[in-house]
Amino acid sequence: MDIRVQQERFDAGAELNGFDPNGAGAVVTFTGLVRDVAGGLEEMLIEHYPAMTEKALREIAAEAEARWQLSNVLVIHRFGSLQPDEPIMMVATASRHRDAAFEAATFLMDYLKSRAPFWKKETTATGENWVESTVKDEEALKRW
Amino acid sequence: MDIRVQQERFDAGAELNGFDPNGAGAVVTFTGLVRDVAGGLEEMLIEHYPAMTEKALREIAAEAEARWQLSNVLVIHRFGSLQPDEPIMMVATASRHRDAAFEAATFLMDYLKSRAPFWKKETTATGENWVESTVKDEEALKRW
Amino acid sequence: MNVVYFAWVRERIGLPHEQITTDAATVAELVDELRAREARYEAAFADISALRVAVDQELSDFDASLKDVREVAFFPPMTGG
Amino acid sequence: MNVVYFAWVRERIGLPHEQITTDAATVAELVDELRAREARYEAAFADISALRVAVDQELSDFDASLKDVREVAFFPPMTGG
């Protein structure tokens, strides 16, 4: 398990190539990128709770390892000031079974969305806006 | 849409970095690797139906684009002689919605497994063995 | 007890964290105490359903006990990923 | 008509493809014709349920018509991915 909370940009391709499947045949990745928004995004600022963030991510990844047969798990999540098209975060899962790799990655994303202590603020020409959580994201947790 | 049927090895990380999400925020990849097998795998030989393969992959990818809002789709599948740990194939999907990216990638994999004209033969010290399709893989198609 | 605020809770209250001495037995009692203090707390805690709380860095509930607790954090629903 | 074989079907029949002139109206009739030819065809087509067929490079059924068809391919269930 490799969990990283960092300000620096990361290279998703290099992370995929460096991710050791430990002999498994199925590797799934999810990469989240800063999307532009109506009005033009000047900055996405990601705030987090340093004393809690890594622990929360480790607990979520450990839960994925308990539910699926995974041979490796990677979670990277950035904080700080980001620009459009930059990578925000990435998860990778490896398993002997493709369904396990897909489901575990989907699970990790659902929990990162609503249970990891990050908050996003978008700045456009018209002002600042805290991104709001959605009912859909909260509902997504119920499938697990 | 980018569909490639090739003998040459590919670089999964470089493919992820070169995959254009066209402004979407969610990118999912699946990479399939040659697994070692009991007895020690000397070679995985992948046979395919050249006159049909690319067309079949394009139809599967087009079906994914019809079912989900995707901003890009990549499918790479190799044929020929492969060694353990080499990448066999890769799909990538990009969407504004993470569920669409995950589901489309899962769909692509289910169809590639059972509807794309590839056949795998494993050679170990004890002989050659054509990989058999599984009931589970055929059943997986029914979820779509 | 260290009380920590994030995102628009932090912005409304105007500081990221503060040391608070309290006799509140639960998170909810602490919230009532803070709301009674000043308008900026009232603004931050007006709608409890829009808030989440962590007690000693674990997601928790507003009826959680504060016994032996060292840090309470208030924030809006998380938006990671 | 070009008839193409893959994987263990190709190995049992001993060639990757051949030109066949036939009056068979359907894929199933072509299979019967081939099985009657030689033991190696009988070995390849013994269990039709273990085989798949493509007609002019489209997955098809054994009751498909061969009218105007240029290529028929026989192979075991695919194992891509």
TrEMBL record, chains A, B:
Major enzyme class: transferase
MF annotations from Gene Ontology: molybdopterin synthase activity
Catalytic activity: 2 [molybdopterin-synthase sulfur-carrier protein]-C-terminal-Gly-aminoethanethioate + cyclic pyranopterin phosphate + H2O = molybdopterin + 2 [molybdopterin-synthase sulfur-carrier protein]-C-terminal Gly-Gly + 2 H(+)
Gene3D superfamilies: Molybdopterin biosynthesis MoaE subunit
Pathway membership: Cofactor biosynthesis; molybdopterin biosynthesis
GO terms for biological process, alphabetical: Mo-molybdopterin cofactor biosynthetic process
EC number(s) given by UniProt: 2.8.1.12
InterPro entries per the UniProt record, alphabetical: MoaE_sf, Mopterin_biosynth_MoaE
Signal peptide: none
SUPFAM superfamilies: Molybdopterin synthase subunit MoaE
Membrane-traversing stretches: none
Keyword field: Molybdenum cofactor biosynthesis, Transferase
Domain of life: Bacteria
Pfam families, A to Z: MoaE
Reported function: Converts molybdopterin precursor Z into molybdopterin. This requires the incorporation of two sulfur atoms into precursor Z to generate a dithiolene group. The sulfur is provided by MoaD.
Family: Belongs to the MoaE family.
Subunit description: Heterotetramer of 2 MoaD subunits and 2 MoaE subunits. Also stable as homodimer. The enzyme changes between these two forms during catalysis.
The protein's name in its UniProt record: Molybdopterin synthase catalytic subunit
Protein source organism: Nereida ignava
TrEMBL record, chains C, D:
UniProt xrefs under SUPFAM superfamilies: MoaD/ThiS
Signal peptide boundaries: none
Top-level division of the source organism's lineage: Bacteria
Pfam families given in the database record: ThiS (PF02597)
InterPro entries reported for this sequence: Beta-grasp_dom_sf, Mopterin_synth/thiamin_S_b, ThiS/MoaD-like
Name this protein carries in UniProt: Sulfur carrier protein MoaD
Annotated source species: Nereida ignava
